[in-house]
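In the design runs reported in the main text, the only information available to the sequence generator was the tokenized backbone. The following block is the verbatim input for one such run; it is reproduced so that readers can re-run the procedure and compare outputs position by position.
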């Protein structure tokens, strides 16, 4: 199973930016899907943020992320990124990276149970 480690979270003022990184222990297959989810408060259902086919052939965003967030892959570094711009206090959450061995389509990519590996999460706090 792929091991995932996130980094890049922190405290930022509203309107600011952060870039989250997720390093995979091994290179995912080109048809695998990498996703970002967030959770707040702890114990609640994780909310889909964005996903990408490792080959970058497909990208998907939650409605709230479109136009503000960008997901990308650096295959040479086994890393997936989430660039987050124009952050608001509502974006405050723990952000998790996830891996699915399947080439998930838009209709199901937001379903967290389809992802088999998860990172430990990184806290993002946006102050007003």
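Verbatim output:
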């Amino acid at each position: 199973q792929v091991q995932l480690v996130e980094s890049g979270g922190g405290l930022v003022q509203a309107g600011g930016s952060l870039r989250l990184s997720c390093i995979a222990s091994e290179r995912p297959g080109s048809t695998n899907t990498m996703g970002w989810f967030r959770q707040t408060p702890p114990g609640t259902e994780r909310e889909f943020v964005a996903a990408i086919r490792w080959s970058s052939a497909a990208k998907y965003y939650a409605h709230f992320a479109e136009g503000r967030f960008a997901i990308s892959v650096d295959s040479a570094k086994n890393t997936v990124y989430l660039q987050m711009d124009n952050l608001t206090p509502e974006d405050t959450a723990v952000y998790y990276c996830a891996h699915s061995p399947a080439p998930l389509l838009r209709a199901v990519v937001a379903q967290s149970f389809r992802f088999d590996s998860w990172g430990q999460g990184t806290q993002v706090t946006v102050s007003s």
